[in-house]
Amino acid sequence: MTYTGPTPIPALAAIALSIRSRAIQDSRCYLMNGGAVESFFISEDTPVGSIIGTLSVNGDPNELSGDISLRIQEKKPPVALAPGTKNLTLLRPLDREERLGPSSVYVNVRCDRRHTADPSFVIPVSVRVLDVNDNAPAWLGAPYRARVSELAPLGARVLAAPASDPDQAGPHAAVRYSVLPGPASEYVGFLSELDSTIVVKRPLDYETLRNFTVRLRAQDGGSPPQYNDTTLSVQVLDADDQNPRFTAEHYTATVPDDAHDGTILETLPGPISAADQDLGINAPVYYSISGEGAELVRLDRDSGALAAAPRLLRLRAPATLVLKATQVDNPDRYALATVTLRRAGGARGAGDG
């Protein structure tokens, strides 16, 4: 007699186990390394049309005989999957500096198991761009011109000639400076190969060398390196061997009781003034306050006129400031003087004590 009753529980368990086993065995659309994201790194000079990498996904995407299908979900991405393969190819240039294209790409690849009703799998794919030395340093403000006194001491600053490299920070963007060998190249040089400051390296003489031009090079640390050259033209100034001079070594200014912000202060023995002692050159000067106390007054850069600032109005004890007159054409030529500020009335006696 044939048994037609309910299926025994052990038989049901065996069926469920078989179904589960088949599901576990179907690894299609899973990444082979067990990860959840596929990542690629490529050089920024990778040509368009190159294969970036191959997706490590289980399954065969062959259009005729394969058991999975792959496609990128995003519209107009800079990468594509070659039909019937797992190969990710480059459609547009990538650029670490983002001049010619993006510096990274993130897309989602949809994987479907063919001939099943299983839901789709989404595989995030990351493409990151590695820097190459594809940019030469660029000079800022080149070509350069400078005027230097023939009496400028060795090590005196001529000017700064900076260059920048747009490559990613690192050896490719590290700039080294040099003066190329040539006529008069021994007279100037960079403070160091990593410093853009140009200084005097040899004494100058107006009578033997009034003008000269040297070639400068900015070179990065790539292999092979990229470089850019420019010129520096120097005009040697004749015998500026005298500093400016103030009309007095010490000035005094009395702050009136009714002074307010902006009140012009009268100084004795006369207005603050300085002039170049090289009468043949007679270079203009500009005025500044050196050291502490600069916040008490406003000093007109061109005229030397002194005006009260808010902090001066609260001053009770006398204060002495250091004045500086600097030649406009040569910051190495300057003169110093002092000015003492005191309140009207009793403040004068306190200062004298």
UniProtKB/TrEMBL annotation:
Q: Pfam family example for this protein?
A: Cadherin
Q: Where does the signal peptide begin and end?
A: none
The record's section on InterPro entries has: Cadherin-like_dom (IPR002126), Cadherin-like_sf (IPR015919)
Q: Give the UniProt record's GO annotations in the biological process aspect.
A: homophilic cell adhesion via plasma membrane adhesion molecules
One GO molecular function term of this record is: calcium ion binding
Which keywords describe this protein according to UniProt? Calcium, Membrane, Transmembrane, Transmembrane helix
Recorded GO CC terms: plasma membrane
Give the Cadherin domain ranges: 42-139, 140-246, 247-342
Q: Would you tell me the protein name for this molecule?
A: Cadherin domain-containing protein
| Species for this entry | Euphydryas editha (Edith's checkerspot)
Highest classification ranks of the organism: Eukaryota, Metazoa, Ecdysozoa, Arthropoda, Hexapoda
